[in-house]
Write a structure and sequence with these properties.
By secondary structure, the protein is mainly α. 62% of the residues lie in helices and 0% in strands. The chain contains five helices and no strands. α1 packs antiparallel against α4 (95-122) and α3 runs antiparallel to α4 (95-122). The two termini are 27 Å apart. The model has no long low-confidence stretch (mean pLDDT 94).
């Protein structure tokens, strides 16, 4: 049941960021939001429909992938969530958005921990092949 709560928490935070104030953002904030969308689309295309899921458990019948953006990031969709959420929060900050973005970051860190355990169990090559590949932020984490 824990994975379901993580997904509910993630999408609740996304909704609070989206609807927690106006969307009258600067051009720069919209550019960062667009960057987040591009990261998401690249990740979705790299994963393919057989692997795509919002749940942190690997999809049945899926395959381990290291192509596309997954050569550089282990969890690019979470990067996309934080870039888009950060752009909206920075572009039109409210206490609700700031809190939701912080909570979303915590939820995603928890989700990454769970997901990496599941990937390691499903794909024995995961741990070794991910050495040197950042989780969310290139060269940082």
């Amino acid at each position: 049941m824990r994975p379901t709560f993580l997904v509910i928490g993630q999408f609740t935070c996304i909704a609070l960021i989206l609807f927690g104030g106006d969307l009258d953002l600067s051009i720069l904030a919209w550019c960062f939001f667009g960057l987040g969308l591009m990261i998401f689309l690249w990740a979705a295309a790299s994963l393919g429909t057989a692997n795509f899921t919002v749940m942190p458990d690997p999809r049945a019948g899926g395959a381990f992938t290291q192509r596309g953006i997954y050569r550089f990031l282990r969890h690019p969709m979470y990067t996309a969530v934080m870039v888009c959420g950060g752009a909206i929060t920075w572009g039109s900050p409210t206490p609700l958005r700031i809190t939701a973005l912080a909570v979303c970051g915590i939820v995603l860190v928890m989700k990454i921990g769970y997901e990496e355990k599941q990937l390691s169990m499903r794909y024995p090559e995961y741990a070794d092949s991910m050495k040197g590949v950042a989780r969310v932020l290139p060269f940082i984490w």
